Amino acid sequence: MSSLSTISLLLLLSLVCAVISVDASFQSLPLPILMSGPQSFAFNSTEKGFYTGVSGGTILKYTPEKGFVTFARITESSNSLLCYVLQEPISSKRCGRPAGIAFNEKTGELYVADALLGLHVVSPAGGLAVKIADGVDGNPFKSLNGLDVDPTTGIVYFTSLSSHLSAYQMHLLLRGAAGCTVSSDGSFVLVSQFTKNNIKRYWIKGPKAGSSEDFSNSPSRLHPSSIRRIGSTGNFWIAAVQRVTNQTAVAKVDSNGEVIQRIYVPLLYNFLSEVNEFDGSLYFGSLTERYVGILKL
């Protein structure tokens, strides 16, 4: 096994590497009134701006020209005012709660892992999402979280905080998964295991296909909440949180586990859920905030 398997997040963040200071370049982009929790982001390579799912079951589209507009909704109820004033988990059960989103770059469809209502897909034109599945092997999903689409095949991978990483058509690959991302060449999936404090690599292609190995291990107080592919660069962003203090630690790593950059964001953005890079900026997701954090690189 390579040295990659023994690298810890603590070591990753303490190595000598490029350090990005969070300063005036950090922007706070307010969400529409009553909306909160921009948990995950998706980007269309042909457009400026981004997509994000928020509380109340709405998928928002943002462009510099128009600001935030509603792109899609998980249920018919998602456009109701009640979806934004009801307390959790009542709101999520009635209206939906998008947790992970990603585009199929080949079809333009947007896939959504809704925390309580299952796996959905939205057409390129937007509108009401279509439910694909709400369980696997006869068991209902519990707390869907991460989602990514293989850029080479269009296969959808998604995770549940309580149980597993699955590939659409409902094949169980790993247990205990939180976030996931597919490598740019489609050869492996990286899976953050929040409760187990580590990241696994599951091989899709090559001589190790069908097997998994440790990609990194986190110290007991740091829990990797997500990992996201950076375009076709072969690099990834890892976001980790400390359960007690909610301190965040963010590291950019390559496919060999070498740290390229690190960012400290103490007390800046509560309940960090994701860090995603697009077109020279970092986008910070949150479970609770009423704005999107954006950092120019």
Please explain how this structure is put together:
There is one protein chain. The protein has 297 residues and is mainly beta. It contains 3 helices and 28 strands. The chain has one domain (3-296): Neuraminidase (6 Propeller). The protein has helices spanning 9-14, 82-85, 90-95, and strands spanning 18-20, 26-30, 41-42, 50-54, 58-63, 67-73, 98-103, 110-114, 118-122, 127-128, 130-133, 135-136, 139-140, 144-149, 156-160, 164-167, 171-175, 179-182, 188-193, 198-203, 212-217, 222-230, 235-242, 248-253, 259-264, 272-278, 281-286, 291-296. The chain has a 5-stranded mixed beta sheet. A 5-stranded mixed beta sheet has the order 3-4-5-6-10, with no helix packed on it. The radius of gyration is 18 Å and the shape is globular.
What is the gist of this entry?
It holds the Pfam family Str_synth. This protein has 297 residues and is mainly beta.
Number of helices: 3
Please give the domain count. 1
Supply Rg: 18 Å
Share of residues in helices: under 10%
The end-to-end span amounts to 34 Å
**What is the residue-averaged pLDDT?**
82
The number of distinct β-strands equals 28
Silhouette: globular
Q: Strand sequence of the main sheet, in spatial order? A: 1-25-24-23-22
Please identify the top-level CATH class. Mainly Beta
* Proper CATH architecture: 6 Propeller
CATH topology: Neuraminidase
State the low-pLDDT regions, or none: 1-17
Strand content: over 45%
Question: How is the main sheet built?
Answer: 5 strands, mixed
